[in-house]
Design goal:
By secondary structure, the protein is mainly α. It has a single domain, classed as Orthogonal Bundle (434 Repressor (Amino-terminal Domain)), CATH 1.10.260. It has four helices and no strands.
């Protein structure tokens, strides 16, 4: 997971850095450092799992199709 990937996925979920930090149990400054590439991402496999779970909760059936209005 790259810093760009982490930021893009967080934004896709509609989360602030604070929300991600709270979910992961890390300081918000650490999330900022990861996203800026100033610190290596701690436990990327665990973060990947958390993001994947949240993304699956937010997915609509047939997400590639237009969402109902």
């Amino acid at each position: 997971m790259t810093p760009h990937d982490l930021r893009a996925r967080r934004l896709h979920l509609g989360w602030s850095r604070g929300q991600l930090a709270h979910t992961l149990g890390v300081p918000i400054d650490e999330v900022a450092e990861w996203e800026n590439g100033n610190l290596p991402i701690k436990l990327p496999a665990a973060i990947e799992q958390v993001l994947r779970q949240q993304e699956s909760r937010n997915r609509w059936p047939g997400e590639d199709e237009a969402r109902p209005s």
